[in-house]
Amino acid sequence: MTSDRHPRRRVLGGLLAAGTGALGLGGALPSASAAGGRPAAGGAKPTVVLVHGVFADASGWYKTMAGLQDAGFPVIAAANPLRTLAGDSAYVSSIVDTIPGPVILVGHSYGGAVVTNAGRGHTNVKALVYVAAFAPGEGESALQLAEQFPGSELPGALVTRPFPLPADAPPGDPGLDGYIDPAKFREVFAGDLPRSETRLMAASQRPGSVGGLAGPSGVPAWRSLPSWYVIPTADKVIPPAVQRFMAQRAGSRVVEVKGASHVVMMSRPAVVVRQILAAHHATR
Predict the structure, then answer these.
(1) Distance (Å, rounded) from C-alpha 113 to C-alpha 198?
(2) Where is the AB hydrolase-1 domain (predicted)?
């Protein structure tokens, strides 16, 4: 009886083999149910890919996901790396590559800049939905757009921490992560959520690379795809005036949510779900 000197390699090999078998040679998901929702009869409903922004993670979409899954939509809440706009967009684009059917891309905050780029070049992406989000034009950055109109309280609430730059970091990247000061988090980011919830959000926030927020966008997917927009009127991160400017330029169909904060998908998820359903009904 022989012993296995490399048990970790055997385990890894088994996992890779199992993943290859499940995905197939093309890497496509075997069914809509694997994406987190119930497949519709005949595969009629698109997969909704939700992309979070900075200071947040995929859990911010939980209530939106629940509404979509209850309506029978397969859902993927992507883990946005929050490093560089080009790299983050390529990552989300690679997820879209694995989806054989139609897709609706939904972005919150900086996630809007990501879907603006990730949606480009995919014939199966049918619509874009922006939720308190950036919809940059070619060459524009999130930081640039945030300052185009007054009203953002984010600059005065930011704290930065250095991180080691990877070898492929773009020239000029300062190697700084941006956080919201926990003492100001609720007021700036999520003023219509309970303090018991925002304390946890502030402690677990995902930072975003300052270099990524300053990264220029490529040709925007909204030039060739229909788009929908949810604008919270009490947003203190991206001023509503900025969002109205971007929505009008993109020709988006807009819903404004009076008194809602930047995390409108958490405080008013039903509105966000309705906009996604509107995008589906208009593009099916």
Answers:
(1) 24
(2) 48-274
Q: What is the pTM of this model?
A: 0.86
Q: Which residues pair with 128 in a beta bridge?
A: 105, 227
75-78 and 47-51: which strand pairing?
parallel
Structure token digits, residue 31? 């069914």
Q: How far apart are CA 186 and CA 201, in angstroms?
A: 9
Question: For the chain, which ranges sit under pLDDT 50?
Answer: 1-42
Distance CA 130, CA 228 (A): 6
* pLDDT value, residue 44: 75
SS3 content of the chain, % helix, strand, coil (to 5): 40, 15, 40
- Which tokens belong to 282? 């208009």
Comparing CA positions, the residue from 120, 100, 118, 144 lying closest to residue 51 is 118
Say if residues 180 and 202 touch (Cβ distance below 8 Å): yes
SS3 153: coil
Region label for 36, one of left (φ > 0), alpha (ψ between -120 and 50) or beta (otherwise):
left
Sheet holding 103-109, edge to edge: 75-78, 47-51, 103-109, 125-133, 227-232, 253-257
CA distance 198 to 56: 11
CB within 8 Å of 227: residues ≥ 6 apart: 127, 128, 129, 130, 135, 247, 250, 251, 252, 253
Question: Which of 155, 203, 160 is closest to 182 using CA atoms?
Answer: 203
Q: Say how far apart CA 202 and CA 182 lie, in whole Å.
A: 5
Rounded CA gap, 265 and 273, in Å? 9
Q: Which DSSP string corresponds to 74-107?
A: -EEEE----S-HHHHHHHHHHHHHT--S-EEEEE
Q: What is the pLDDT of residue 181?
A: 98
